[in-house]
UniProtKB/TrEMBL annotation:
Organism in which the protein naturally occurs: Paraburkholderia lycopersici
GO biological process, one term: succinate metabolic process
Subcellular localization, as worded in the UniProt entry: Cytoplasm
Residues that span the membrane, as ranges: none
Lineage of source species: Bacteria, Pseudomonadati, Pseudomonadota, Betaproteobacteria, Burkholderiales
Tagged with keyword Cell wall biogenesis/degradation: no
Keyword Lipid biosynthesis: no
Keywords assigned by UniProt, alphabetized: Chaperone, Cytoplasm
Protein name (record): FAD assembly factor SdhE
Length: 88
């Protein structure tokens, strides 16, 4: 069973990291955190952290489904979080 990410400081850091240079990305992440922030598991936080390591343009391509995750990003946790991001 996945554990809930209950550390508010860790969630706050993640939310701060999600602030992007592209307004479109910012809007998607704001809606995402508004809906899911308090329900994120440790696995979700790990997947989000990996997505946030991408450049703004690469992240935008994934968020808008112009591309699908490849390589080490093509794992179930990243795909699940990406699906949530795409549907907010």
């Amino acid at each position: 069973m996945e554990s809930h990410q209950s550390d508010p400081l860790r969630r706050a850091r993640l939310r701060w990291r999600a602030r992007r240079g592209l307004l479109e990305n910012d809007l998607i992440f704001e809606r995402f955190f508004g809906r899911y922030e308090h329900d994120l598991s440790d696995a979700d936080v790990g997947a989000l952290t990996r997505l946030l390591e991408l450049s703004d343009n690469d992240l935008m391509d994934l968020l808008l489904a112009r591309k699908e995750p490849e390589g080490d990003l093509a794992d179930p946790d990243v795909k699940r979080v990406l699906e949530l991001l795409r549907n907010v």
